[in-house]
Structure formats: C-alpha cells, structure tokens
Design goal:
Shape of chain A: elongated
Structural class of chain B: alpha/beta
Mean pLDDT of chain A: 83
Mean pLDDT of chain B: 86
Helix content of chain A: 40-55%
Strand order of the largest sheet of chain B: 6-7-8-3-9-10
Number of helices of chain A: 30
Number of strands of chain B: 10
Strand content of chain B: 25-35%
CATH topology of chain B: Rossmann fold
Distance between the termini of chain B: 18 Å
CATH superfamily of chain B: P-loop containing nucleotide triphosphate hydrolases
Largest sheet of chain B: 6 strands, mixed
Oligomer: heterodimer
Low-confidence stretches of chain B: none
Number of strands of chain A: 33
CATH architecture of chain B: 3-Layer(aba) Sandwich
Strand content of chain A: 15-25%
Low-confidence stretches of chain A: none
Structural class of chain A: alpha+beta
Radius of gyration of chain A: 40 Å
Largest sheet of chain A: 12 strands, mixed
Distance between the termini of chain A: 33 Å
Chain lengths: ~1050, ~230
C-alpha cells in the first residue's frame, strides 16, 4: 500500500502540494508563536531585567551603631553576605559610612548647628565635582568635600579649614575632627541621595535623628580611611550589592530571591554584636514576582491566539480533507470494492499523514524561524529591543511536528469519511439541535467563568483565560453559521419565482453545497478571528493607554523624594519656561490619609490627591462617566477667590519685625512666613527668633528665598517671660503687638485698602490669646502688617502663644471628589461630610462629586481636592510643613520632559512612557504582535478556504457548465451562475463571521485584557472599535472573495469543453 | 427519408482531432450526413468510434477542425459563442447519457431551466413544465429532486427538459446507456413518441439494437468514419 501512496502522491502532486502549503502555513504560525512564547519571552525577560532600576534588584545590608574600630570587619562580613546572595550575577558593591551628628564649630566654638561625616565609594558616580578635587587619605588633617549648598550657607570654599566638634547624644566621641576642604560637589539626582540624612540637600533647618532638631549641614565627605582614623562612631554602615544586569537571568534571580530568606539571619550571625542592629533589605523578590506576573499574563494571551490559530487550522485541514476525499472518492470505492479493509485504509492514511507532516514540518521549521526573526526586527518587537536572528530550538521542532501531525491526521482522516448527507434524517437533525444547545451552554459557562475572574492576579484564572475565549468564539461561529442555510433557503424560495435562471439556480446550489458545513465554519471563523484580532488589539492598546493615563494622572508627573521647597518650585518653573504656549502645570499633593475610622486595606491606604482644580480640564487624565468632564469636576472643587498676599522683596531683603510686650516682659517671637509664588505654590520659611523689645529686627532667612514671592501668612510663636513667672496671678490681660514691615517691591506699596483683609487665628486648642487683630497699612515705602493680641498673662508663661496671621480665607470644609471605591468602602454619597486625617491634621471634607477613579490612584479609595483649598485648610490648622509632593504638567513638549528630568528633582513619569511600557514593553509586546500574526493567519486561511470552496471538484463543476451551455446558457450566464453561487454562499458567511467577531469582542474582549501583572485593569477596559481598519479588513476579504471567485470561475468556464460531459453528475 | 424539403441538419466533411500534434487522436474524419425534418437518425458505433464527437459538433458544443454544419438553415460552424448559445437555446437541445439533471432542483424546476434561460413568463413556464411532465408521465413527481427519482424517471425528466424550449433538433447521446433494458425501452419509446408528436428531428447516438429499430435511419460510424 505504501507504493500506492507514493504513486498517488505523484499523480496528485499539485493537490498534495496545496495540502502541504496549507499545513506548513498553519505550522509556521504555531512555530512562530512558540518562538514568541519561548525564545522571545526569555529574551524579553532579560531585556526587562536590563531595563529595571538597578535598585529594584539590589541587596542592601544595614548595620546601625558601630565603633570605627569594628566597622572594617563588619563591613567585610556584610559585603560577603550580600555578595553571596547575588553571587552568579557579578555584583558590584558600594559601601557608605555615616557618622553620628557632631557639633558644627565656628572659630573654635560650638554652635547650635550640627553636621555629619560620610565616607562612600560611590561619590564619583553620584555627584559632580564643582570645585577642587575628591578627597584622599593623607594621614594628616582629613580632606573633605561638601555639597555646594553647604559650602554656600557656611561660607566655606576650597582650602578652608573647618572643624566638627564632639558627637551629640550619650556616649559620643568627644574628640573634634579637623578638616580641610579640598572640593565641592553637586549631587546628580535627588533620588540617588535618598539614604543621605539630608537627602543630598546639603542643609536642613530642623533635622532630627531622634534628638533635638537643629540646623544641620552635610554631608562632609571624607575618604574611608580618614573616616575611620577620626574614631567617629558609625551611625549607619550600608553595603549595597547591585547585580550586573546583563548577566542577570531568571534562574539566577530566582536563586538570589531564595537566598534572601536566610540572608538576614546570616548577616546578624556574622556581624554579631559589632552592630546594635542589622537589617537586610531588597526589592528583588517583589520585582521578580512583578516580572513573572507580566510574563505569565502575556503568555496567557498569546496562548489564546495560538489555540485560536490552531483551531482555525484544524478546520482548514478538515475542509481540505473533505475536498481531497471527494477527489479520491472513486478510487476509494474501487479499493473498498476490491476488499480494502478499514485497518488498511487507516494504515495508508497514517503513512500518508506522516509523510505530509514531515514535508510540511521540514518547510515550516525554517520558515517559522525566519519569520520570527523578521518579526523581531520590525516594529514593536524591534523597538522593545527583542531583535533576534533565526533560531531553531527543540521546542520549535516539537511544536511544529506535533501540529503538522495533528493537522495531517485530521486532514487524511477526513478523506476517509463518507460524503456528508445533504439532508440529514430527522433524528440526526434533532441530535444536531441538541448538540447546539449543549455547545451554547458550554460557551455560556465559559464566558461566565471568564467574567468572574478575580480582580487580582491569579494563576488559577489562566486556564479560564486561555480556554474560554476559544470555546466561546468557536461556539458562536458554529451557531452563527447555522443561520446561513436557513437564510439561503429562504432566499432560494423567493428567487424561485423569478423568470431568469441565474439567481434561482445559484441560491439553490449555494443552499445545498455538499461540503458546506466545514467550509462555512472555516470561512466564518476566519473572518471572526480577523475581526476579533483587530478589535482586541485596539481594545488592548486603548486599555493600556487608559491604564497609563489613570496611573500617571496627567501627562507628566514629577514625584519629589521629599516635600517641595521654594527652590524646587523655581527649578520646575525654569524647566517649563521654554515651552510656548506655557503648559498647564500644578503642584500636587499626593499622600495617604485616614477617613474617620477607615484606614484602608493592608497596603492600600486611602489616598489624597490635590491639584490646581482650575486647571483640572487640561491637567487630569482618566475616564469619567459620559457627560462628565474633569473641568466640570474641577469647577466644583475650586476655591472662590484667589489669595492676594503682600509682595516680598527679592530674597526677603529688608523684611523686619517690631514688637512689644507688656512692661517688664521679655518676649520673643519665632517667625515662620508662608510664601506663595506666581503658580500658587506655597511654602513655609523659618525666619528666626525676634525679641519683642520695641525695636525693629530684620528677619533672618535661612537661605535666599528668591524673587517673585508673596507673603500670605505669618506664624508667630510667642515665648519668653512675662516677668510675673508661672502661676503668679496678674490682674489683667495685656496687649502684645507685632508689626511686620515689608519694603515695597518696585517702589510702590499699592493700596492696602484694595486688598483682602488679614485675620489672626490662635493655633492652640486652649490659647491665652483673647482678641486679636491684623491690619495692613501702607507707610513710607513699605507695607506694614500690624498684629495686636490680647494675651492672658496668667497662662502665657505656661503655654506661650501660637497665632497665625493670614490673608487666606480658611475653608470650614474641603470639597472633594471621591472615587467609586471610596463610595463602596465607606458608603459616602454626594453631599456627605467626611472626617479626614492628613498627617496629624484633622480636616472636614465634603463630597462634591463621585468619579470612577481619582487620577494617579487607580482602583484605590481616594479623594481629589483642590490644592489651594487644601493648603488653606492645612495652614489654617497650623500645618505649615511643606505638603507639595510633586508637579503635574499637561501636554509637555519633548524638550520640557527632558528639562524636567534634567532638573534632577525626583522621578519623572510620563503618560506616554507608561503607556509605551505597558503596551510595548519587552514582556508585553508579544500580545499585540501575536494578534497581528493571528490576523494574518486568519486572512490567509480565509483566502485558502475560498480557493478550496470555489475550486473544489472542478471536474463536476466543469461538467455542470458544459451541460448548462448545452441547454442554451451563454458563457456569460455560466460565469454569472458560478459567481453568484459562490458569492451567495461566501458573502453571508463573511457577514456572519464579522458579526461573530464583533459579538466575541464585545463579550470577551474586556475580559481578556489584563494589567501588566495579570490583574483586572483600572479603569475597566471598554471595547474600542478600529472602524476603518475593520472595514478595510472585511472589505478586503469581500474583495478577495470576488477576485478569487471571478478568476477561478472564468478559468473554469473557459476550460469547460465537451470532453467533460461524462464527468459525473451536475 | 428523402424528399424535396431542405434537410434539417447538414454536415459536410467534418473532421475533429484531439490530442497533441505529436500524438494526434482523430475522432472524426470527413463525415458528412443529412437529416431530414422530423427524421429520427440513429448513430451507431462502438465506444470511441466518434458518436459523441459528432453530436457535439452538430449541436455546436465543439468546433470541427474542418467541415461545416448547418442546422435549420443556420451555419453552425460560422456562429460565434453568443450565436451558438442562441442556437442551443432555441433550435437544438440535448439529452445526455448521465441525465445531466441539477440535483438542487426539483423535477419541475429542472424541466423549467431552458424556459428560464429564455426568460419565459412564470405562468407560461409553469404551464409548459406541467404539460411536459404529464407528457413523460411524471406529473406526480414534479416536486421530487433527482436523487428521489429512478434512473428511468430521471431520463424522462431530461427528455422533458430537452423538449421544454420546443427545439427543432434533439440530440441524444446514449440516452439509455445507464438504464436497464426494460427501462431503456420505455425511454426510447417515449423518445420516439415525442419526436413524432412534437415534430422534432432527432439524432440519437446509441449501440442499443432496440433503439436502432425505432429509428427511421441508422448511420454507422467506426474509427471516426461513416461506414459504407
């Protein structure tokens, strides 16, 4: 029989060549997807690792409280532990030693200020030298470099000698440390200095490490040996190991994550009692889990595509088998009549299937390898850095051969089946209807499961995610195709009344196509898959954009490491200045809060987001309910009036305070000014202590406050002695006055009467201050803010007095827009009031609007407020600390993005960047790519199906044409009849396929889109229709039907001669 | 049959060769014949003798390499494709050995095909179809599809279809070739009857002795040539 197979193959070589091409095409898809899942995902994982923030994969050992004598040995032990964890990844280590705080001496005398020493081997990579050179070990007076800010504020430069006094706190080393400045530097980025006590700022007016807060300067960076030679206590010793990302792979990272479990104990054991505390920290396990979740999520979607493609290919194989079977029908009948048994038929079929599979596989393996390589060098995959040369793996070979065997076995088995019965028996029809119902139930259950997936990432959901879409699409296609014969039958009945021949005969023929069931399913499924793939890709892309918009909240988000100071606002302003027209920008408050008794779930505290709501329309991103806009939301949050403060001279020069207390009293006022820049950014600036002795004292600003500021509030913390002493009754209250004189800016004071009034508020719950007034007066070349307080002297000596004079109207409640999650969590509704704690300040919030999600807080319990209103409420409550956590910018130009980045203020995140990472990141890009591959395969199989349907059994079709022509039909009639017959069959199927594809997208699309970690995306995906692309694809398919049918029909009719007359029946 | 009337079918020097120049297969060689109106001519010969080729040339389904054919005064070999279609629609009709019915259509619909090609009004078409089905004895089988009919019944439907367009010439190629003797006899009797009743000229290719006996004249062909 094997020789028969070979001989038949020789005779039917063209037919078998077509079969091999079909199987090889399907196998190529499977092979390509296999490589995408296997090789590309591995490459993508490495690429994602290389793009990771090195800190996310680093391991850090912290040692607290060591002597300088023990530090070297402890450092070596810590280095050994963190080095072992990352061993195979050639880790690079950094060591930083930070001393305890020391007194800062000036002219050999102790001052109130403090400073600290640092020794680090990473200084040259984290700072730029601005003067002098880096320090070296000299053996004499230790060489030191200091930040520019420190040098400027202390008035020191290269060559100057400074001295740090004894260590503060109990048990500190008293010996002073003489230093000589050999250089100054500028920190490169704030984030790289986040573990520095001052965050790289160089100065803090009130830093505390647990002891008394004081002005602090530093770091004073010395060589490590010099540090140890000073004998300083080591407050913190930090050893960080960074893996070499180019050699970090999945297995080595998993091994490291496993070693981390035991590493803390090992560190504590090896360091022993040299350090008071040891800790080992790493984000590596979390980062690795994140990468794995991304990979699993992508693989799940790619598998859906792969299975869909394989299902389509199986349908194509079955159809091809039916058609090949019809060609071989006579031969088979003859052989059966000659005694060929079923086992022999199967054996022959198996041998033929194996041969065909081998040939198709031999073609598909290299083609898949080349196609995969080409794919990775184009478009999104190339942009994701996943370029790869042709590669052949055992997985590829195995997948291709298995698919080829499956397809050819399906195909050859189909050739053995009897020709399908055109009119099934009533029993078979009933069984078919029952099967339809079962399929429908199964699809409904699968959809229900898919719909009920957990919102969080879940491994068990993957099976559902993979199987359900394929089942639903297949069932919808099968059931949708059932409608076509009914429609055609109805059309045939109507057409039967026509006078002509073409339409009635074509409808009748189309209704009764013998091989219709498989062909119809394949054609409709291919169209459905094409429509589905295209719409799912757009839906997926749109969802990534939506997720990015909501995650970032705006177009550009700058997140500061620490709340903003005035200088930060100025640098942001400079970075934005070049763009014309100026982009909408706003300082942002983004921090956790507590809502009454509700403090949120573990790891998911309620979030407060506050921006300039007057710019909400331009600034905020994220989907809202239809008919709602962010501008509209912003309008209900915005404060009624803008604040108008007193303009300050540049750098606050000449601002003075003159005050007077009761006779005999010795009072001082600690002054804190709240200033506001042109963008509405507010900051508090300590201005020193001023004696209220009747004389005018200039305020002492800690640093230059810069130009263009307005004074909007002044806090006066009154202290000192009334002269009577605590508990000594005095008969009356006394008046304390304080007048702040602000020199006119530009020589004019304006008219104080035209400005909003100032008010004074006691900030203590039980304040000794009774009546209080504040008034603005224009005097010669200056504006005076005159404050008068009626102070109960009985209590003053116990409590002091703390008052705030401000021009800001303080809101009783802060209107907020709340997220739907908040509504669900606490049951709040529009108009309700909520008690909220921000930091340690209690505020009353009123719910003015409900939004699906608050920008930058997707899927979280969150409130959105106006930054100005919130700031007023906090200032009114005495909370003058900086609260601005960043800036948001709308529609920034590329240059602006770069400028903000270059400012080095913190993390810069752009909506486009996040969207690109989500949609086209190394571990994500396989999803859109495979959907394109599915689209291409669907189109290819559709056209193949059309060719098979139209070109099937050409001998019979040719005989039919000749007989019709013998009856008097013209050549044109014959062509029209054939064309009409095929179009009447194929066009409704294309329509059904399109509808099935659209319905599948509506039903399945939103459930197939998951976030980058496999969880339900926020916001929930909505179907996005690429109408033009869909119309182009469906239109192209219809055009393909017309062209293929017309060409094949014209050829058929032209070649149909009388010699065909004895070829079977019509 | 002879007389003063013009023959309905006139063929002169018909030659038809198939195959390639290197390996030619001469199906007909210099065949001439006349068929008078209303005459039933039986063309007999062994399989491969050229009977079917002759019928195809007479009906314009094929073109001769040499020679001419006239049917009802029209020069068939000079007609273009459209003219041939008109000839087959209005003058010549065929009955095939394999019946050539359209499986998707009922018996009545099959009979109506030539009338649809002529765009005959629906009422006239239905009336004519019913008449012809009664004529071939299948009035009760009008709504049955070919698969539901016996071989003899299918050939009767094919004959009714051939007569639907009121042709002047009926060309039948082995009309009983796939029928048993008894059924074939019935079909031939029917053919003879309709030739007489409808006044049709018939050329019937056959090797059936019974059919030969029903013909007015017998033309024997062997190896593409007319015997004698």
């Amino acid at each position: 029989m094997f020789s028969l197979v070979l001989r038949r193959a020789q005779v039917q070589r063209r037919l078998l060549a077509a079969v091999v091409v079909l199987v090889a095409t399907a196998c190529t898809l499977v092979g390509t997807c296999t490589l995408l899942l296997d090789v590309t995902q591995a490459r993508a994982f490495r690429e994602a690792v290389q793009r990771s923030d090195p800190d996310d994969l680093s391991v850090t050992a912290f040692l607290v409280d060591l002597t300088s004598r023990d530090a070297p040995a402890a450092r070596d032990e810590a280095a050994q532990v963190v080095g072992d964890v990352l061993g195979p990844m050639r880790p690079v280590q950094e060591t930083t030693l930070t001393s305890r705080l020391r007194d800062l001496e000036a002219d050999g005398a102790r001052t109130d200020s403090q400073a600290y020493l640092v020794a680090t081997d990473a200084l040259a990579t984290r700072a730029d030298l601005t003067a002098g050179r880096w320090p070296a070990a000299t053996g004499g007076r230790a060489e030191v470099v200091v930040p520019d800010t420190t040098a400027r504020l202390l008035g020191i430069g290269v060559g100057d000698e400074v001295a740090l006094g004894g260590e503060r706190g109990l048990g500190g080393v008293d010996a002073p440390v003489p230093l000589v400045v050999v250089g100054t530097f500028r920190p490169r980025a704030v984030l790289e200095w986040e573990r520095d006590p001052l965050g790289g700022a160089g100065f803090s007016p009130a830093y505390s490490d647990g002891l008394e807060a004081a002005s602090t300067y530093g770091p004073f960076v010395v060589d490590e040996q010099a540090f140890l030679d000073t004998g300083s206590s080591v407050n913190a010793l930090r050893v960080t190991a960074h893996p070499a990302l180019d050699v970090a792979g999945d297995s080595s990272l998993q091994q490291a994550a496993g070693l981390l479990d035991d590493a803390p104990g090992l560190l504590a054991a090896r360091v022993g009692d040299r350090a008071r505390l040891t800790r080992l920290a790493s984000d590596l396990p979390r980062s690795l889990a994140h990468l794995h979740a991304q990979r699993a999520s992508t693989a799940s979607t790619v598998l859906v595509v792969l299975i869909l493609g394989t299902a389509l290919s199986l349908a194509a194989a079955r159809l091809t088998g039916r058609l090949v079977g019809s060609v071989r029908e006579d031969e088979r009948d003859l052989l059966v009549a000659m005694g060929l048994g079923r086992p022999q038929q199967l054996g022959t079929a198996g041998a033929e299937a194996a041969l065909l599979a081998l040939v198709a596989g031999a073609i598909a393996v290299p083609v898949a390898s080349l196609l995969h390589s080409r794919l990775t060098h184009r478009g999104d995959l190339s942009a994701a850095g996943l370029q790869q040369g042709p590669v052949v793996t055992w997985t590829l070979v195995g997948a291709v051969l298995a698919t080829a065997l499956l397809l050819t076995a399906t195909l050859v088995t189909a050739t053995l089946r009897a020709r399908p019965v055109a009119d099934p028996s009533p029993r078979a029809a009933a069984a078919g209807r029952g099967l339809d119902v079962l399929l429908l139930v199964a699809a409904a259950l699968a959809w229900w499961q898919l719909r009920g997936q957990p919102s969080t990432a879940s491994r068990t959901g993957d099976v559902v995610l993979t199987a359900a879409p394929v089942l639903c699409l297949a069932v919808l296609t099968v059931l949708g195709v059932r409608l076509v014969p009914a429609l055609l039958g109805r059309a045939a009945a109507l057409a039967g009344r026509a006078r002509g021949l073409v339409l009635p005969l074509a409808t009748q023929q189309a209704t009764r196509r013998a091989q219709a069931s498989t062909a119809m399913v394949l054609v409709a499924a291919a169209v459905a898959a094409a429509v589905f793939a295209l719409a799912l890709r757009t839906t997926w892309d749109t969802s990534q954009d939506d997720q990015a918009a909501l995650r970032v909240g705006t177009d550009l988000a700058l997140t500061l490491r620490a709340p903003a100071e005035i200088g930060d606002a100025r640098r942001v302003g400079t970075a934005l200045a070049a763009q014309r027209p100026a982009p909408a920008a706003s300082p942002v408050i983004h921090r956790p809060l507590a809502l009454g008794h509700y403090v949120g779930r573990q790891g998911a505290r309620p979030v407060l987001v506050a921006v300039d709501s007057r710019q909400a329309g331009a600034l905020l991103r994220g989907r809202l309910a239809p008919g709602t806009t962010w501008a509209g939301i912003g309008r209900v949050l915005a404060p009624a009036d803008p604040a108008v403060g007193v303009p300050l001279p540049d750098d606050g020069a000449g601002v003075a305070l003159r005050g007077r207390g009761p006779a005999g009293a010795s009072l001082t006022a600690r002054v804190t000014a709240v200033v506001e820049d042109r963008t509405g950014f507010r900051a508090s600036v300590p201005a020193g202590d001023v004696p209220l002795d009747g004389a005018s004292h200039p305020l002492r600003w800690p640093a230059a406050v810069g130009p263009g500021l307005e004074l909007v509030a002044v806090r006066l913390e009154l202290g000192g002695s009334t002269g009577a002493g605590p508990g000594v009754a005095t008969a009356t209250t006394s008046t304390v006055t304080a007048t702040l004189t602000v020199p006119a800016v530009g020589g004019t004071t304006g008219s104080p009467g035209s400005r909003p009034p100032w008010q004074v508020r006691p900030l203590q719950e039980q304040s000794p201050v009774g009546g209080a007034t504040a008034e603005l007066h224009a005097v010669d070349g200056a504006t005076e803010l005159r404050t008068s307080l009626e102070v109960d002297l009985d209590y003053f000596d116990y409590t002091g007095a703390d008052v705030l004079a401000t021009v800001l109207p303080v809101p009783a409640v802060v209107p907020v827009a709340v997220s739907q999650d908040l509504v669900d969590a606490v049951g709040a509704q529009r108009g309700d009031e909520l008690e909220a704690i921000v930091g340690d300040t209690a505020l009353r919030l009123s719910v003015a609007a409900v939004v699906p999600d608050v920008p930058s807080a997707p899927g979280e319990v969150a409130v959105l407020a106006d930054a100005d209103t919130l700031s007023r409420a906090l200032i009114g409550a005495g909370r003058l600390d900086p609260v601005v956590d960043g800036w948001w910018v709308a529609a920034p130009s590329t240059a602006t993005v770069e400028a903000v980045r270059a400012a080095g203020l913190g993390t810069v995140t752009t909506r486009d960047g996040v969207a690109a990472d989500l949609a086209r990141g190394p571990l994500r890009v396989a999803v859109p790519t495979t959907l394109v591959v599915l689209l291409a395969l669907a189109i290819a199989l559709f056209l193949a199906a059309v060719v098979l349907v139209v070109g099937a059994d050409r001998a019979r079709a040719s005989a039919a044409v000749v007989r019709l022509r013998a009856l008097g039909a013209s050549r044109r009639d014959a062509v029209r009849l054939q064309l009409a017959e095929h179009l009447l069959l194929l066009l409704p199927l294309t329509l059904v396929g399109s509808l099935v594809g659209a319905a599948s997208t509506l039903l399945l699309g939103p459930h197939l889109v998951r976030s980058d970690v496999g969880a339900a995306p926020a916001p929930a995906p909505v179907v996005a229709w690429p109408w033009r692309a869909e119309l182009a694809v469906v239109g192209g398919l219809v055009l393909g039907i017309v062209v293929v049918t017309w060409v094949l029909t014209a050829l058929l009719v032209r070649r149909s001669g009388p010699s065909r007359l004895r070829d079977g029946e019509l | 049959m002879s007389g003063a009337t013009e023959p309905m079918v006139v063929a002169r020097g018909l030659t038809r060769t198939y195959g390639t120049a290197a390996a030619p297969l001469r199906a007909l060689h210099d065949v001439s014949l006349d068929v008078a109106p209303g005459e039933m001519l039986a063309v007999v010969g062994r399989s491969g003798s050229g009977k079917t080729t002759l019928l195809n040339l007479l009906g314009g389904l094929d073109r001769p390499d040499a020679g001419t054919v006239r049917v009802d005064g029209a020069e068939v070999t000079a007609l273009d494709d459209e003219g041939l279609s008109t000839l087959r629609r209005d003058t010549v009709s065929y009955v095939f050995q394999t019946f050539g019915l359209i499986p998707a259509l009922t018996a009545a619909e099959n009979v109506g095909v030539p009338l649809r090609l002529r765009r005959t009004p629906v009422a006239a078409r239905e009336q004519r179809v019913a008449l012809l089905l009664d004529l071939v004895g299948l009035g009760d089988h009008a709504l049955q599809r070919p698969a539901e009919l016996s071989g003899g019944q299918q050939q009767r439907v094919a004959i009714a279809r051939a007569l639907a367009g009121s042709p002047r010439v009926l060309l039948a190629d082995e009309p009983t070739g796939q029928l048993d003797t008894e059924t074939g006899l019935g079909v031939m009797a029917l053919l003879r009857a309709v030739v007489e009743s409808e006044g049709v000229t018939a050329v019937v290719a056959t090797h059936d002795a019974v059919l030969m006996s029903l013909a007015d004249r017998v033309l024997a062909i062997s190896d593409g040539r007319v015997d004698g």
